[in-house]
Known about the structure:
Strand content: under 5%
Radius of gyration: 27 Å
Order of helices and strands: HH
Number of helices: 2
Shape: rod-shaped
Structural class: mainly alpha
Low-confidence stretches: none
Helix content: over 70%
Mean pLDDT: 82
Amino acid sequence: MADTTTAESTKAIEATFEAGRSSYRDAVAHARGLDGVGFLFKALGVVLGIGGVIGGIIVYRAPGFGSELGLVVGLLGVTAGGGLYGFGFLLAAIGQVLLALIDTAVGSKIVAAKSLEGVGKGS
């Protein structure tokens, strides 16, 4: 009878550890996903900013358009690109902070588990 209780207890512990591993994997995937989406927004912001500057130069030099329109096109491109880059920066930062938080939580659980190994075993 003691063997059955031990086996059931072992299965319950294994199920708990597996659920924890699954949650950890999901959380890490979400954190890395946020970091990746942030990188994409930053790249899109850089491309849009460079495209705005190039478009502004083209409009500025084109005959029939005023220099003011070229300046407006360039500033709009840089402003939109800067906004996207800033948003991507924030998303990437949130993803990295979340990943660090997850690693800290898992690390502290391991340290706590190791420090409690001998507790309750009678000295």
